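User: I'm writing a short methods note and want a consistent example. For Kinesin motor domain-containing protein, I'll paste the sequence; you return only the structure tokens, no commentary, since I'll be parsing the reply automatically.
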Amino acid sequence: MDHKVTTDYTRLLGNANVKVYVRARPCADGQNAPEDMFERKKETPNNIVIKDTERMQYGNHAFSFDNIYWTDTTQETLFEATSKCLVDYALKGINSCCFAYGQTGSGKTFSIFGEQGGEKVGLLSRSIEYLFDMTNRQQSKAKEVTLVVSFLEIYCDRVRDLARAYLKKTGRPVSYQTSSSTEWFLRQ
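Assistant:
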């Protein structure tokens, strides 16, 4: 088995349909400033160098991604660059998936959910709003539009259906069923 660390995530899967993005979050109180931990060069904007501040004897580590969004990236910019095209694909009947991965406290919840109202609304709300805007525009072309979505959280090897948890909390009737060992459906 090859235990090398992958440094170029743009070539990891060899698939142009899979994109890997990084979003840096602002540092919390008491943490090193991003500039002390990471380096980005203008000539290689999709590369990030992680400076090994704890063990400099091992040197810096460079990684390549499809794009890197720095701490000042707005939720709107992130949506336009990463998720809007996924909604467009879904409306054409092409399966689409966007997921956030990272350790606890890395900013996944903020990127996906954001804050209610205003400029800090996350990718999920923006995607749903855009999806309904586009389906409303297309209603004259199609008689019926069916939307199937999943909201899952995988944490410590446990899968949690976020939609079911939300619907139970709001008191709405929920029916949960499976069509096979790999497909789950939530019906309201």
